[in-house]
Amino acid sequence: MTPSPHLRPGLLALVATLVVDQAFKVFMLQVVGITSGQTITILPVLDLVMAWNYGVSFGMFQQDSLLGQWALVLFKVAAVALIGWWLWRAESPMTAVALGLIAGGAVGNGLDRVLYGAVADFFAFHITTASWQFQWYVFNLADVGIVAGVALLLYESLFGGRPGASKSARS
């Protein structure tokens, strides 16, 4: 089977997501030297906080054991293989870019597990008023790529249609 004509933008999105994510992590860990639990305030609503995530998205399924961590790595490998197969067959540039963002984020977080035994998360959004407080999960740039890719897939499935589809077929 021949690859999708949209493979190149998807691969570019994958590589860009992976490189930006890993470069930021190396910068924070090696140059800034941020340590676990350390907080650096960037804006009144944004801190950089070093948090090691031993689970999957949003800290679910925490795995402290070596076996558990490698099980998560194998799960990521399988997920990236499935996404790669989908990317190979992508029917639109938007689908290809979305899949590239998701795969790049998954590879970035998987690489963290191999290198560090956990995923390095840094960004903490929060809002605090006199009577109310909101704290979002701590996340990283790989997570941003994954969420952006999923949002693009949802957008395309709801509003974008498929190449060659008529307006009536999308209704």
How many DSSP H or I helices? Answer: 5
- Described by the principal axes of the CA atoms, the overall outline is globular
Amino-to-carboxy terminus distance: 31 Å
- Sheet bearing the most strands, described? 4 strands, antiparallel
Rounded to an integer in angstroms, the radius of gyration calculated over CA atoms is 18 Å
> In the residues, how many domains can be counted?
1
Q: Helical residue percent?
A: 55-70%
Unreliable runs, pLDDT <50, ≥5 residues?
A: 165-171
SSE string, helices as H and strands as E: HEEHHEEHH
User: Strand share of the residues?
Assistant: 15-25%
Number of strands: 4
Assign the structural class, choosing from mainly alpha, mainly beta, alpha/beta, alpha+beta, or little secondary structure: alpha+beta
Taking strands numbered 1, 2, ... along the chain, how are they ordered across the largest sheet? Answer: 1-2-3-4
Mean pLDDT: 87
Counting copies of identical and different chains, the oligomeric state is: single chain
GO cellular component, one term: plasma membrane
Enzyme class: hydrolase
Organism: Phreatobacter cathodiphilus
Function: This protein specifically catalyzes the removal of signal peptides from prolipoproteins.
